[in-house]
Amino acid sequence: MNRLIIRCYESSTISDTSRDLLSELPLTEQATNESRVRYGALSSRGDWALMDEKGALLEYQQDADLPQLTQYLAEQSTGKSMRFTDVIVCPPTERLHTRCLSLDSGQRKHLETVAPFLMEETLAQSMEELHFTILNKSQQDRTWVVAVEKTLLSIWIEQLASWQLFSPSILPLACGFMKEAEKQEGHCLLVKVQQENVSPVEGSAVLSPQWLWINDTTVNVLTDSMLTHLPKTAMETAIIEAEPEKRVLEKIAQFVLQTKSWQEKNLCHGAFRQGGLWLEKLTPWRWVAALAVIAFCLELFLLQASTKALGLQEQDVRQQANALFLELVPSEGRVVNLSRQLRGLLQQNPATTTSTKTDSAYDVLAKIDQAREQVKGLHRLTRLDFFDQTYRLDWQAEKRETLDAIQSALEKSALSVQMEQVVRQEQGYRAALKIQLTN
User: Fold this and answer.
1) CA angle at 208 for the pair 273 and 12, rounded to the nearest 5°
2) Are 341 and 324 in contact (CB under 8 A)?
3) Rg (Cα) of the chain, in Å, rounded?
4) Which of 58, 241, 342, 358 has its C-alpha lying 20 to 30 A from 313's C-alpha?
5) Which superkingdom (predicted)?
6) Structure-model confidence comparison of residues 241 and 23, the more confident one
């Protein structure tokens, strides 16, 4: 699992991408945000390193063209392991307000709420405009907190997305050096993070800060001219590498590799997590979504109520039909299967019978024997009586469905058949059938 680590610098001019982002804002906000973008947007030139899962350096470039980085890696991936799963970006440290806060007892439990108020007196703008990230949640008496302007963080994320660097983890550069600073006397550490002969940022004649200064309360970036204001011991313990840009990326890779909870220090959380910006844009529509959900629940309730009402109507109609049937045919006694009982009564009506006057006793017996052969299964005729133009049969079968099949076969033979009774026995079922001949 390779990781792509990128260090971005600040651009002092408005890039085409930043200008496009500004054009999407209302006119009343463009003037306000233009100055922020001018001194906060990311430069298209930066340093990057591709690290493998063990922290080994696979490839490194300084002052690279970041908008073309993904295309370059795709072209170089043939025959080489240049694919990556994580994108870690270190933004310009000068745009992050990092401070170590001392905590009283009880403040740890509500740190997410308390931290912005503890930093308020050191901030030059409203807290509503800032996004806060707590870097170390495990310490009890003190914690590092990073504040960054929400508008600026949004622009960084959209700039990276325009460079095909989606869902980045944005980590403060100081994360790679904080543990080392804690080991120093006074928790102070001076690290050179940029060479003197590096090109100035775009559109500016001033070199970007070359030093990272961590003390027990703040994190700052300094130029050479500012070093005279530091304690004398700072330069004595300063970390100066031959390739400071490369060393910075290696330190970030070591930090990520050695820290299981490194994602907690990602600035992209809350409204800025993966997909969070879209959710934030959809926030004005939350009431529409709520009304849609309420309308759906109401429609579901009405549908359920309508289904229940139809069920009650069906039950009422069934009861009325049964009562009317018993009123018309009281000899039936009770209703077991209304449709079957109606069919039997209709078959008894001479006007609807299909039996002919030409059916003789031999014809009826032949039809009975034919029905017996047609129906499969274990069954037999146990009794046959004839009296007053009526045949009465007792038929035994192993299954109830077999008796229904026998009745159906007799009806297909143009006989008026009525099943008067079905009795369950130990060996199956016994049915009493009546065949009425036409006078």
Assistant:
1) 65
2) no
3) 45
4) 342
5) Bacteria
6) 241
Instruction: Identify the residue whose tokens are 């006397």.
Output: 185
Please give the single-letter amino acid code of residue 3.
R
Beta strands in 11-154 (DSSP E): 42-51, 57-65, 86-90, 97-102, 130-134, 142-149
Question: 């800032």: which residue's tokens?
Answer: 130
Please answer whether residues 82 and 58 qualify as being in contact, where contact means their C-beta atoms are separated by less than 8 angstroms.
Answer: yes
8 Å CB contact between 37 and 195: no
Task: Kindly report the length of the chain.
Answer: 439
> Could you tell me if residue 143 is left (phi over 0), alpha (psi between -120 and 50 degrees) or otherwise beta?
beta
| CB-based burial, 401-439: b 16+ in 10 Å, e otherwise | ebbbbbbebbbebebbbbbeebeeeeebbbbebbbbbee
The amino acid at residue 429 is: Y
- By CB neighbour count within 10 A (0-12 exposed, 13-18 middle, 19+ buried), where does 191 fall? buried
Counting beta carbons within 10 angstroms of the beta carbon of residue 333, is it exposed (0 to 12), middle (13 to 18) or buried (19 or more)? exposed
**Spatial contact of 422 and 395, defined as CB atoms under 8 Å apart:** no
Please report the sign of the dihedral spanned by the C-alpha atoms of residue 264, residue 265, residue 268, residue 270.
Answer: positive
pLDDT at 248: 93
Whether the CB-CB separation of 234 and 190 falls below 8 Å is answered with yes
- Write down the pLDDT at residue 432: 92
pLDDT band at 308 (very low <50, low <70, confident <90, very high): very high
Q: Tokens 């001019």 map to which residue?
A: 13
CA distance 150 to 155: 9
Cα separation of 201 and 194, whole Å? Answer: 12
- Give SS3 for 325: helix
Amino acid, single-letter form, for residue 71: Q
- The predicted pLDDT at position 358 comes to 54
Q: How far apart are the first and last CA of the chain?
A: 95
Establish how many alpha carbons lie within 13 A of residue 31's alpha carbon, considering only the half-sphere containing its beta carbon.
Answer: 2
Virtual torsion, Cα 121, 210, 178, 250, nearest 10 deg: 140
Q: Position of tokens 């409204």?
A: 271
To the nearest whole percent, how much of the chain has pLDDT over 70?
84
Q: How much is the pLDDT for 285?
A: 77
Paired tokens of 302? 């009405």
* Tokens describing residue 197: 């002969």
Phi, psi of 64 (to 5 degrees): -90, 160
Q: Where are the alpha helices (DSSP H) in 103-143?
A: 111-119
In this prediction the pTM is 0.58
Place of tokens 């990073």: 146
How many Å apart are CA 371 and CA 358, to the nearest integer?
19
